[in-house]
Structures are given as structure tokens and as C-alpha cells.
């Protein structure tokens, strides 16, 4: 370990409040420009309307920024919050932090739900949320010590740049012999030099005696973090946590429902998806078999080599043992690879422990790039984390550059000599190293797909039309890793998502395409209302969604709405009621989310987005762009043209059929938008109506004025 | 003999996943099953034979994302 120095710049002593029914009832505010630190009360309105977690983040951010605020303005805030249920060790998946900021990729709010211990430790230290504004010229470490009841800011020199080395050093430094009491949040050099930097949230693994990591990946929250001059956040709390630490309203009621869910997972996970053994890698081959695994920049959904990246491989590669990213979680899906030796970069030839990969990384840094070698995926995973890069955006952006190269829109003059063909593993790794160094073609890729399209057109003379069709971004955010061409509902799940095409709002692809649970527009619209609302609720409360529907009750299939797993929804309502004392049923959970969800849509509008035009998708998300894609699934597409569209395609060329299908599918997507907007209580332009914001209690004067300014009068 | 969702089920040579699901009478339209530690998806049900003494898990696959 190299020597480093932490010079104390500011100390803020505070009186730690007792946790009451899941809330600390205050938030922590730091301004890095002048090192002002303050604790502010949580108002009853905040709890009633915004619940916690992402809801608190949004409210703090709304009050911090102006409509003109850009991601790198000092007033932009990085907000991190847990939630009233967060930090409960008995209930599976209850340790999440939610990070939010104005995104460098989208210009609007981005939020990311992440494991690790920081959020719960922050809350137990006395703060439901942390808001960081301002900017510092020097690297700062912010230390929230809930045990000694102080917040300290240090000027840091000599700390490692990469997240792995940095978290290890700071964990050791602040642990006072108890490393499990520490959680570190950090980014890395890639976050500094790209627009899709992630944050690494640590948790200490006592069995393996090392800090482990989960990532708040999407939308560049790590980039904002580094731009502010933040090197790291550190929280310290006594890891001897029980259900009482969260001071639930009804302890016995909480223990009863927690035991039900926890035991069910222990019993059923081995019979179902084996999350505790292989994590989300179980779906790689399943997606491939159903033509849903993105390969080669979303051209295709299947590849004969995909089993090389499947669960059978990672079953052997993952280090056996307990991998819960929060205490007591029985899903425990945060697996990792021990004694991995990278072949490139600064860790070349050194043994490392790699946290991951999960499905998104396997697909994004594997099949999407035409790479079917698990060790390259693991190495890309390792360096993305160490450099503070979002593996999804890295994969999707690199895949776009690769396809542009293959199409001849770019050549080695533009890529600095890199032969950027699909499947070029060394080139993919080199792009990531260049992102971290802020050099070469990797620096351009690190700006994201939307900016790449502009750069390639303006500086390299590439055709903007084809790039608009194959550049897999919407709202400026890179797609996560599911093929949507054959699932209209999932097209809506991506295109109508508030932050951009991330699947955490609505993962409907299997329900729609494989189970055929929602054949009509109305059913799709209903699903695109209910699922985003319920999934949003997890981020309000500090929860992971995986226990809800990755392991499901054995009698679920005989329930009226199996897709919703209502038995678990009812348990979550019981969980919320028992902790907060706010008696709630399943419909109340939806209502909570609806208020926050609509508020975020209004927030987007305030930032200059949030209209119908911003819900547009690149055509590749809807159908085949090229003749090659069409011909690879010609039977499927021909059938749709003849059976559904009732067209006579005899004698038509492939190019003509591509055009006909495009016209039909684009119209389908617009019709879906109409149905969803209506179901959500929005105008035909995709803006919540006055009646909707009033019904949800978010009709603040500023909201009403904003809607009226944008032509909403009813 | 094989075990299917925890219950014993007679096995015969050449029995495929599609055969098993048809015979079981289970009304659920499973997209995925697991044979021991191998996942098999619906497009491959008709061509995947189940070995004797296998443990078969019926995966509801509501999950994901």
C-alpha cells in the first residue's frame, strides 16, 4: 500500500437521533465549495408523499437545482438515501441505497438502486439521506461516523485512484480493528474521464476478509461524484445490527412476516433460479434460447457460443460461500470470482477478487460485443468496477462503436489503430483502459452513444440516419441488455421509463413474449402502469426487488394474477406497516409510488424533457434495421406482414419488406404510448394532467405552474 | 424413476421434457425447466431427453430484470 495523507478540513459534531419506525427524521447536507455542513429535519410531508429512498432524493434534488442546471454545475447534488425499511437484517433484500443526481448523459434525473452497507449505516448514523452540493478543487473524503457522532471532511493526497485499492485503504484506515463497521462509496478514474461513471458501494465480507462491492451503475452518478472533487464517502456504524436497530412499530409483526419470506426463499431458491449459487447468470442461456440475448449491438438475440457465458460456466467460476450484499439476505446473489489474474492493465499478472459478473455485465461486456469468452467478461467487469465505469453503458457504447467500424462508418484512422471488430477481446479491453486514462478513441466512446453519434457524423462524416437506427440509447442513456424487437410491452418498458432504457422499471419481456400474459394494448398499458409503480416502491423503501419475484411461491400459478406475485406484494405491505406503523395494503404501495413516479416525470419536464418526443426509441429496439437482420428471422417477419398486417408481400424485395415492417411497428409503438399515457393519467403529449397531480397530492404551486406553462390545463 | 418438483415420476428411455410436461397434467405453461443443474428452455423441450434418476425442477420464470 502506498502512503496517503488525510488532512482534516472540517468537523461537524452532531447529536444522533434515535431511529423511530424506520426513520432518523433528518437529512445531512454538505456543500463542498465552502464545507458548510448541516442536519435538516425530515418533514411529515416528505414521509407522507415521498416515503424515503429515491423519493427523498428527488425532493432534495428538486429543491437543489434549477431548470437550467447542468450536471457539472455546483448546485447539482449527489443524493444518497436508504429508506424506512432499509437496514432490516431479517427481511431479505433490505440493505439498498438509492443514489440520484442530474445525469451527464441525459440532463435529467438519474437514479440507481445499489447494495452494500452505506445506506443503512448512514441512516443508523442519524441521516435518512445525504445531499452533496458544491465542488472542491482538491480531493475530499467525507467521513460520517455514527458511533462518535461526527461528520468530518478530509483533504486527501496519495490515495489509490482505483475503487478497489481506495476502498481497501479507507476501510483499513477507519475501521479501528472492525472493518465490518465501514462502508465506502467511491468512483475511479474512468468516472472522471467518461460520462457514465458508476459508484462502488462496499460491504465487508468477514469470511473472505475483504471489502466487496456493488455498483450504482446507471447514468453517470459516479461522473458527477468525481467532478465535485469527491474521492470517497465513508460511513461507520456498529455492525451488530438487529431488527430493533430500525425501531419498528411492531417488532413481532415484523419478525413474523420476515421469517415467512426468508424461509420461503431458503426452501424454494434451490428448486428455482438458484440465486444463492449462480445469481442472475442463470438467465443467460434462457435468454439466448428465447432469442432475447442481445448479441452484436442488438442485431440478434441468439448465438451458438452463448453457452460459454452461461450458468454452467459461472457455477464453476464463482467462489462458493455466502454472498449477501446486506446482512441476513437469503437471496445472497452477489457472487464473485476468487484469484482471477487479469491479462491486461495495471493489475496484469496480479491475483484479484472480482465482484461479479451479473447477467447485465455478461451480456453487455460479452455477447453484445460478440465476445463469448467468460474470462474476458470477468476482466472487463473487474476493470469497469475498479475504474468506476458502468458495465452496461460501457458494453452498449462499445458495441455501437464496433458496429460502426464493421459498417465502415469508422476505420483505424478514427480508432487510433484499433481493429474494432465484434469479438476483438483485446480491443474491448483497450477501450476500457483508454476510458480510464482519458485517452484515445476510448475517450470518445466514454461520452456515450448519443454524443458519439454527433462526433462520428460531424468529425468522421458518418451517416447520421443509420446511426440513429442502431445507436442504442434513449433519452441519452444506453440500453440495458435485453432484446425488445419482438416484445412491444418491453419496448414500452424501455421507451417510457423515466430515466431512460433501464429495465428496473418494467421487465415485461418474458411476461409478454414468452407467457403472452398481455396480448392487447390495454393489457400492456395496464402492465406498464402497475409494474413500474410497484418496482418504484422498492427504491422508496431501501429494498431490492429480487425477493419479490425471482423466487416465487409454489402456489403462485393458481393465483388470479401470477405475474404480480400478489402473495409477496401482500407480505411487503405487511412489512411496511409493521416497520412504519402506517397501515397499508397492496394498493397503498402502488399509490405511494404513483406520487413519486409522476413527480419524477414532472421533474423531467422541468429540466426540458418529459414529453412524448423524449420517449422515442431507436428503430433497432422495434424491429430489424438491416436486410441482414430481417433475413435472419425472415419467417417471423414475413408472417407478421402477411398475417397481422394483411399485406401481399409476394415479389417484394427484402428492403421493401424492411420498410413495410418498420411502418407497422413504429405505429404500434405510438399506439402503445397513447394507451399508456391514458392509463397513467397523462396528456397525449406524455405530461401528467392537473387532475393527476392533484389526485396524487403533488400539486405544489411550482408543479401546477410548470404544467400550465407546458399547455396542460385540465 | 425420476423426481419432478419433489415427487417421484416413472421414467422411460427417450423421455423428453415435452413428454414429461404433457404427461404431468400440470396446466402451467413452463418456459424453463432444470434437469439436475442444467437449465432447458421451452424451444428445446422436444429435443431434450431426461436421464434416469434425474431431478427435474419446473421453473415458473416470472422473474428477471
Strand percentage of chain B: 25-35%
Number of strands of chain A: 17
Largest sheet of chain B: 5 strands, mixed
CATH architecture of the largest domain in chain A: 4-Layer Sandwich
Spatially, the strands of the biggest sheet of chain A line up as 1-9-8-13-10-11-12
Based on CA inertia axes, which overall geometry of chain A fits?
globular
What's the Cα radius of gyration of chain A?
24 Å
Counting H and I runs of at least 4 residues, what is the number of helices of chain B? 1
Low-confidence stretches of chain B: none
Which CATH-level-2 architecture of chain B? Roll
Structural class estimated from helices and strands of chain B: alpha+beta
Domain count of chain A: the total is: 3
Oligomer: heterodimer
Mean of pLDDT of chain A? 97
Summarize model confidence as the mean pLDDT of chain B. Answer: 90
What share of the residues of chain B lie within helices?
Answer: 10-25%
> What's the CATH topology label of the largest domain in chain A?
Aldehyde Ferredoxin Oxidoreductase,  A, domain 1
* The level-1 CATH class of chain B: Alpha Beta
Structure notes:
- The complex is a heterodimer of chains A (714) and B (65).
- In chain A, the strands form four sheets. Chain A has a seven-stranded mixed sheet with strand order 1-9-8-13-10-11-12.
- Chain A is globular, with a radius of gyration of 24 Å.
- Chain A is of the alpha+beta class.
- Chain A folds into three domains: 5-241, 4-Layer Sandwich (Aldehyde Ferredoxin Oxidoreductase,  A, domain 1); 273-478, Aldehyde Ferredoxin Oxidoreductase Protein, subunit A, domain 2 (Orthogonal Bundle), CATH 1.10.569.10; 488-616, Aldehyde Ferredoxin Oxidoreductase Protein, subunit A, domain 3.
- Chain A contains 29 helices and 17 strands.
- In chain A, strand 5 (97-102) and strand 6 (109-114) form a beta hairpin.
- With 65 residues, chain B is an alpha+beta fold.
- Chain B has a single domain (2-59), classed as Beta-grasp domain (Ubiquitin-like (UB roll), Roll), CATH 3.10.20.
- Helices cover 12% and strands 29% of the residues of chain B.
- Chain B is built from one helix and five strands; from the N terminus they run ββαβββ.
- Chain B has one helix spanning 17-24, and strands at residues 2-4, 7-9, 32-35, 38-41, 55-59.
- Chain B has a five-stranded mixed sheet with strand order 2-1-5-3-4, with no helix packed on it.
- The A-B interface holds A 271-273, 282-283, 285-286, 289-290, 310-312, 315, 482, 503-504, 507, 509-511, 514-515, 546, 549-552, 556-557, 562-563, 565 and B 5-6, 27-29, 31-32, 37-39, 41-44, 57, 59-65.
